[in-house]
Batch of 2 targets.
Target 1
Amino acid sequence: MYRSNTFGLILVVATSGLALGGCTGTEAPEAHIGYVEADWIYVASPQAGWIVEQPVHEGMDVEAGDILFRLDTQAQEAALAEANARIAQSGAQARNMSTGAREAEIRALQARLGEARARLTKAEADKTRILPLVERGLEPQARGDTVSAEADMAAAAVAALTQDIAVARQAARPAEREAADALTVSAEAARDSAAYRLSQRTVTAAVPGRVEGVFLKTGEYANPGAPIVALLPVDGLKVRFFVPQAQLPEVSLGQPVTIRADGLPASIEATVSYISSTAEYTPPVIYSKGSRDKLVFLVEARVATSTGLKPGLPIEVVW
């Protein structure tokens, strides 16, 4: 989880602190007072957990994708394993429903059908033999009724077993197969969710930059959203300065400007990235007799972190 914040310091800039150029006989460009500001990225954990690995330290340069910290993963790995097992289970159920009964079950039904057909053959033979005798009065009517009922029952048993075998050879009903397929889809979604939660236990740098702060270390417990590492991107430094209204037409987006600061052996090039559309009085962070009580416009210019500028450093801007 990443959260950006802008860092600035209230400065008192001494008018004698920065050289404005030597006396060469030509008028030096007017310098505009400003300061350096940083756009930090505060890296937090999206989940709660114990920090088990932290391969970075303050002042370390990192590239995009480098691991900043890792949380414990036991619970997430168990959830992923359970989800994979449910996928296997639901898949087996779906395949079972699509293939019908096993061959052994069908063979057992066929054996019972053979027995039923044998009983039917005997019952039909008894019926054929007894009924004429009943008609001639040689056998009682009850005997005729019995053999007729036995023949009908044997025929019904043969028909029922024939239908059972036909049903056993078929797959499950469409609704049952759809339910089994839905269970498989649900299990796969649970697997994807578990895999995503596991991946969030490892937090990497989204952009290249320098580690400026480490707030929690290995062995400490991280809460969701709480910053753990402060990262200064390679393009995270900017200078803020103020331009009087009369000179505003001289400044445009993308324009190169020159930065001067005490302690730097040479001037630094920067690029104007923002020009305010609203005028304001010179803010109290800039104390300059020449700019006091003037309406000015805020201008920002981006500089690389490798220039040696530090957040809060007073600077002068010329162009």
Target 2
Amino acid sequence: MEMNGEKSSWERRERELCFFSKLRLDSDKKSKRNSHMMESVKKQNEAANLEIADLKRKLETNVEEKKAEHQETLKKLKE
């Protein structure tokens, strides 16, 4: 009887080890996937920030040009 008890105990232990190994592998896969997703999000964020900076420069240039045009128009009106 003990042999059966020992065998089933070992089998149960082996199943538990397999189960926890699978959980660990699944967790590792999820961590790796999350890491890749975070890297992708960081790259997208970087690209968006560069685009925002470019748009700000373009807007500033446009504002400066409009100010210059406005000043030129005021000069002409005063003449």
